[in-house]
Amino acid sequence: PAEAEELRARLRAVRHTVLVLSGKGGVGKSTFSAALAHGLAADEHKQVALLDIDICGPSIPKMMGLEGEQVHQSGSGWSPVYVEENLGVMSVGFLLSSPDDAVIWRGPKKNGLIKQFLRDVDWGEIDYLIVDTPPGTSDEHLSIVQYLSATRIDGAVIVTTPQEISLQDVRKEINFCHKVKLPIIGVVENMSGFVCPKCKKESQIFPPTTGGAEKMCQNLNVSLLGKVPLDPQIGRTCDRGQSFLSEAPESPATLSYRSIIQRIQEYCEQHHSQEEKM
Amino acid sequence: LPERSTNLLGVRHILLVLSGKGGVGKSTLSTELALALRHRGHRVGILDVDLCGPSIPRMLRVQDRAVHQCDSGWVPVFVGQDRAIALMSIGFLLERPDDAVVWRGPKKNALIKQFVTDVAWGDLDFLIVDTPPGTSDEHISTVEALRPYRLLGAILVTTPQ
C-alpha cells in the first residue's frame, strides 16, 4: 500500500503508457520502441520517455546512440538519459560498467530493478511512456503490469514477424494480455517482405506460411496496425544509434512506421478523451 | 551438488545451445543439428527448456503429440519412424497450444530441474539443450541441474548485427 502509493505519486504525471511486447525474441520490439519514441518526440511539445526493462539484453542504449552514458542521481531521484530535450531513456544498460557485462539475475532481482526504474527515476511530466520488454511471458511482464496498475496502461503493441514459429509465441502473448486484462492496441508485423533495391522485386524472406499476422489478427479479433518491410537500413541505423525515421525518410519501412505510430497516437488520444468524459 | 539422476547416465554428450539474443536461430540450429547427427547414425535427444516460447515441437512436426509418464519419469516424444530423435518440451504439457506459460522464476526453475532429471532418455549419443534468450532463471537452473554431468560444451548462436 505505501509502496503502491509511492509508485502512484511518481507515475501521476504520465499521460499515456504503451507496452511493447512479443512472445518471440528478435522480431523487432526494441527497434520498434525506438522508432515509436523518435516518432512521438518529433513533436517537440510532447515529452516522451522510453523505459527498457529487458534486463538481460538491453538494446535500447545502443539503438538510441547512448552507449556509455551513465545514470546520475539527484535529490529528486535517478535522472533519465536524454536523447533530445523531450526524449528521455532509462535502461539497465546505463548501469553496467562494461557493455559486455552479463546480468545473470533470477526473477526477484529483476523485479526489484524494474520497480526502482518506476519509483526512483525522475521522469517529470510525460505525455508518452513507452516500455520495451524482453521476449516471453514471465517475471518482467507480470511485474511491469502489476507496478503500472498504479497508473493506467493505454495498451500493448505486440510485435511479430510473418512466420508461424513467431505467431505461435505471439498468440501466447495475446493470451497473456487477456489474462492480465491488458488492452491490445494492435499487432505490428515486422520483416514483412523485402523489396530488392536493384530490380524492385518483392520477396518473402520469412514466408507467412499460415497467413502471417493478418490472418492471426482476423482469427483473434485484434487490430493489425501495419506491416513493416525488411530494410537493411533499419539494422544499420540501430547498430549506429541513429533514428531510422530520420536517416531513411523515403524508405517504405519509414512510411509504415509513421502510419503505425499515427494509429497508436489516435488510439491513446481517443481512449483518453473517452475516459475524461466518463 | 544435486544428485546424479539415472536418467542421464545413458547420455554420452550434452550440448547447450545458447545466445543472449532472441530470434537468432537457436531452436532452428538445435533442430538442424539433431537431424544432421541422426543422419550420421547417432541417437539424439533435444531438451527444450524455453518455457515461454517452445518452438521445437512444431519444427519437428510433433506439436500434436503428448508425453506419458513411466516409472523413471517422463517418456519423451520420439520423432520419425526410426525414433532416433527424442524430444522433451513444455509444448507437450500445454492443454492448448496458445496457452501462455505465465510463470515467475521459482516455478520455471522447478520444472527445469524436472526436465533435466526426470526424462527417461534411454541411451543417447547426444543431448542438445535448447534455451530461451537471456541469462536468467532458465539458464542458471539448467546449468546448475546439469552440473553433476559431463557437459561437452555450449554453442553460441548469433546474427551479424
From TrEMBL, chain A:
A GO molecular-function descriptor: 4 iron, 4 sulfur cluster binding
InterPro entries: AAA+_ATPase, Mrp-like_CS, Mrp/NBP35_ATP-bd, NUBP1/Nbp35, P-loop_NTPase, YlxH/NBP35
Signal peptide: none
Keyword field: 4Fe-4S, ATP-binding, Cytoplasm, Iron, Iron-sulfur, Metal-binding, Nucleotide-binding
Entries under CDD domains matching the protein: Mrp_NBP35
AAA+ ATPase domain: residues covered: 15-186
Function in brief: Component of the cytosolic iron-sulfur (Fe/S) protein assembly (CIA) machinery. Required for maturation of extramitochondrial Fe-S proteins. The NUBP1-NUBP2 heterotetramer forms a Fe-S scaffold complex, mediating the de novo assembly of an Fe-S cluster and its transfer to target apoproteins. Implicated in the regulation of centrosome duplication. Negatively regulates cilium formation and structure.
Protein name per its UniProtKB record: NUBP1 factor
Organism whose genome encodes this protein: Cephalopterus ornatus (Amazonian umbrellabird)
The organism's taxonomic lineage, starting at the top: Eukaryota, Metazoa, Chordata, Craniata, Vertebrata
UniProtKB/TrEMBL annotation, chain B:
Single GO term (MF): ATP binding
GO biological process, one term: iron-sulfur cluster assembly
A Pfam family annotated for this UniProt entry: ParA
Keyword Nucleotide-binding recorded: yes
GO cellular component: cytosol
Keyword 4Fe-4S: yes
UniProt keyword list: 4Fe-4S, ATP-binding, Iron, Iron-sulfur, Metal-binding, Nucleotide-binding
SUPFAM superfamilies: P-loop containing nucleoside triphosphate hydrolases (SSF52540)
Name the record gives this protein: NUBP2 factor
Species whose genome carries this gene: Cephalopterus ornatus
Gene behind this protein: Nubp2
